[in-house]
Amino acid sequence: MWRAMEGLKDKERRGRPDIVHYFLLNVLESPAGKEGLVDVYVHTYDGKIFYVEPETRIPRAYGRFIGIMSQVLRGEDTPKIHPIEKNVNEIIEGKKNARFKIIVLDEDGRTNLPEQAVARDSFVIIGGFPHGTFRRIYPADDRVKIHDRVLPAWVVGAEVAAGWERRFLFAGF
Questions:
Q1: pLDDT per position as a tens digit, 7-33
Q2: What is the pTM of this model?
Q3: Structural domain boundaries of the chain?
Q4: CA-based angle 146:94:118, to the nearest 5?
Q5: Phi and psi (nearest 5°) for 7?
């Protein structure tokens, strides 16, 4: 795969559906995900955005996941993953208008524990590319890193979900 991408612009930001697969498994199978409390948007390199319904069951087998995502990217109808006809800024603006706290997980952000960074209604932006940082500056209420080392997106997603759960879902335990 790497060889085929050698001549592509931004090759370090492409060709890793495994990152999305691991991320979706971790976040949607978390307790918050199981309770339907997580909304996930996937933003592709070429600007397409897909909404993954909270009750979506992501196949454990990577090959099956690739088959479903191939259908999605070709525009074929899938029951739980839908294209969104908005750009990223419109989605962020809609969340801001709905009083969500916008948090960008950024390796240049201030260090904070996930449970301290999130609000009950948070919209968290996590980069899902193999290397590098965001190409654009997203409008945010906070820019946070949860560790001094760069972590894989699926680990960050799981940590943020767990932090939110500790703060809000399991607060009474």
A1: 556 556 556 889 999 999 999 999 999
A2: 0.88
A3: 2-169
A4: 25
A5: -90, 0
Gap between the Cα atoms of 34 and 156, Å rounded: 18
Residue 65: which of 126, 29, 32, 22 has the closest Cα?
22
Q: Report CA-CA distances (Å) from 80 to 35, 54, 92.
A: 16, 8, 21
CATH architecture of the domain with range 2-169? 3-Layer(aba) Sandwich (3.40)
Asked if 162 contacts 49 with a C-beta cutoff of 8 angstroms, the reply is no
Helix ranges (H only) for 55-124 are: 62-73, 88-97, 114-117
Helix (H, G, I), strand (E, B) or coil at 88: helix
Residues 6+ away with beta carbon under 8 Å from 137: none
pLDDT at 2: 47
